[in-house]
Amino acid sequence: MSLWPSALSGKIRNILWPIEKSELRLFLPMALLALCLLFNFSALRSIKDSLVVPSIGAEVISFLKLYLVLPSAIIFTIIYVKLSNMMQLERIFYVIVSTFLAIYALFAYLLYPSQEYYHPSVELTEALIASLPHAKWFLKILGQWSYAIMYIFAELWSVVVINLMFWQFANHIIATDKAKRFYPMILLIGNIGLVIAGNMIVYFADSLALPHLLWVNFFGGSYHAAEITVKLVVSAVILSGIIAMLLFKYIHSYILEDSTAQKLAARDAHDTQTKLSIADSISLIMKSKYIGYIIVMIICYGLVINILEGPWKAKVRELYPTTQEYISFMGEFNIWMGVSSVFFMFICSNMLRNFGWFVSAIMTPTIIAITGAMFFLFVVFEDVFYLLFGNAAFSPAYAAVIVGALQNILSKSTKYSLFDSTKEMAYIPLSKELRTKGKAAAEVVGAKLGKSLGAFVQSAIFVLVPTATFDSIAPMLMVVFVLVMILWLMDVKKLNEEYTKITQEDKQ
Q1: pLDDT at 4 exceeding the cut of 50
Q2: CA 197 to CA 334: how far, in whole Å?
Q3: Domain range holding 236?
Q4: Pairing with 332, which of 207, 282, 380, 408 sits 20 to 30 Å away (CA)?
Q5: What phi, psi does 255 have (nearest 5°)?
Q6: Cβ-Cβ contacts under 8 Å for 172 (sequence gap 6 or more)
Q7: Average pLDDT, stretch 139-144?
Q8: How far apart are CA 361 and CA 377, in angstroms?
Q9: CA–CA distance from 461 to each of 47, 225, 254, 455 (Å)?
Q10: Could you give the CA distance from residue 65 to residue 30 in angstroms, rounded to a whole number?
Q11: Dmax over Cα atoms in the chain, in whole Å?
Q12: How close are the terminal C-alpha atoms of the chain, in Å?
């Protein structure tokens, strides 16, 4: 009888905290590193959207992702492949993160405060649009080009720094059997960064908050609430990025040298440099059916999210038309995103161990399919809902924003908890070349290609029909959404067959 409470407490501990005491020395720095990187991801997401959506329009996001972010992602992939042949991942991490932080600082402290000196005048931009209506959105981007640069590098933070470098490092030092326990818990702690960032942004967006008053008293000058908010948020991003680099250095210099921590690794944790040329790397990737399935899965996710987010952000702009209001809303949105992600982590962290890879991997597309369908039905038939349920206190725009926010929160919560964990586990059994360069192709190019395909469809319509809006093209986007979801579900099934085969071969 005395063994029963002990056995029960052991099962509860395995559900809530499956990390062994001896593993904490490696686990905790990795989890804190994820927290810093996800904190920056959340803060940058709020800043980039708050800059371009209120001032240019939600429709411009399609053009930014297709014509600027995608080429930038391809360039970064080529640079990364070259660097991976020249140096270890540790040095690449420092070089790329430092570059990103420097660009954020340049924008916040030089370009944004003095944008009237760097941007073409509003009158010139409007005159060009009047003479070239089909180039309307390209001219709007050119009119506020520094916003576009900030958008590009904020967008690339997640795919380059988090999806590519952080997870490649984790895949290299953590064995497959440990990943089932480690990855969900790393993401659980990491997603706390979303909550912290959301609360910080809401606080900084308050023009009467103490940081605003201190900034005016110490630095003087004209008082622009949005400018101070951007500077405060970017300062926090830079500080978090520096802490992330220090944690990365600590893990390399002190943790991976320890024999106890090295037992967690399936291979030499310091051997991250590769040898194949760019041409040979491309040939290797193109011949891998396995990497192809991963790329299709990532493309499908990026495509459906792009299709869903455009109409939603257009609705958000209707309610929150200024940069300051938009930042505040996005801060509150990120708080709920973080809380939901942590909650889902507690539920989903045991799914990988108890139900296997396929059930865990299929959950994200299933939830996105359900919530996305609800959102599109509401947007496409908004007038019908208004006639059925409308009254003096009913706001169709507000209801659309809430439904869209709920869809975003639920879909991204499962993405952060299950999609990311299962996707990263799929890389672990591969060779070093495929883990490094196949992952680079899948994460950087695949992720941006998915969003860019959605952007291509939308931008083509906006170019051909300058008066088109997200409300008017929502029915077409809904059809594309359904087709992509079917492809995604079929692809997960195929990838599961390959993953099961390769992991069983490794055990033999």
Answers
A1: no
A2: 7
A3: 23-265+280-503
A4: 380
A5: -85, -50
A6: 89, 265, 267, 269, 272, 435
A7: 90
A8: 26
A9: 27, 36, 54, 10
A10: 30
A11: 85
A12: 40
Kindly state whether residue 318 falls inside one of the protein's structural domains: yes
Compute the CA torsion angle 397, 48, 413, 10 (nearest 10 deg).
-140
Does 6 fall in a domain? no
Q: How confident is the model at residue 348 (pLDDT cuts 50, 70, 90)?
A: low
DSSP string for residues in 7-32: HHHHHHHHHH----GGGHHHHHHHHH
Pairwise pLDDT comparison (281 vs 67), residue with the higher score: 67
Asked whether 301 and 419 are in contact (CB, 8 A), the reply is yes
Residue 295 contacts residue 106 (beta carbons within 8 Å)? no
The Cα 406–Cα 374 span in angstroms is: 10
H-helix or E-strand spanning residue 74 = helix 70-86
Q: What does the mean pLDDT of the chain come to? A: 80
Q: What CATH number does residue 238 fall under?
A: 1.20.1250.20
Neighbours of 456 (CB within 10 A): 19
**What's the mean pLDDT in 426-432?**
75
DSSP designation for 262: H
Assign 3-class secondary structure to 107-171. HHHHHCCCHHHHCCCHHHHHHHHHHCHHHHHHHHHHHCHHHHHHHHHHHHHHHHHHHHHHHHHHH
Q: What is the pLDDT of residues 445-457, one digit of tens each?
A: 666 677 777 777 7
pLDDT in tens, 47-85: 888 888 888 887 888 888 888 888 888 888 788 878 877
- Cα dist from 385 to 318, 373, 437, whole Å: 18, 15, 49
Task: Say if residues 107 and 150 touch (Cβ distance below 8 Å).
Answer: yes
The string of DSSP letters for 471-499 reads HHHHHHHHHHHHHHHHHHHHHHHHHHHHH
Domain count of the fold of the chain = 1
Residue 3 falls within a domain, yes or no? Answer: no
DSSP state for residue 266 in the 8-state scheme: S
Share of the chain above pLDDT 90, in %: 15
Q: Does position 170 have pLDDT exceeding 80, yes or no?
A: yes
Q: Is 273 inside any structural domain? A: no
pLDDT of 486: 93
Q: Taking a C-beta distance cutoff of 8 angstroms, is the pair 171, 428 a contact? A: yes
Q: What is the pTM of this model?
A: 0.76
pLDDT digits (tens, 9 = 90+) for 374-413: 888 877 777 776 666 655 455 666 777 888 888 888 888 8
In the numeric block, the tokens 């001032």 are attached to 55
CA angle 443, 35, 331 (to 5 degrees): 90
Confidence of residue 287 (pLDDT cuts 50, 70, 90): low
Tell me which residue has tokens 């010139």.
124
Contact 39, 194 (CB under 8 A): yes
Give me the pLDDT at residue 8, please: 44
Q: What per-residue confidence (pLDDT) applies to 94?
A: 93
SS3 at position 276: coil
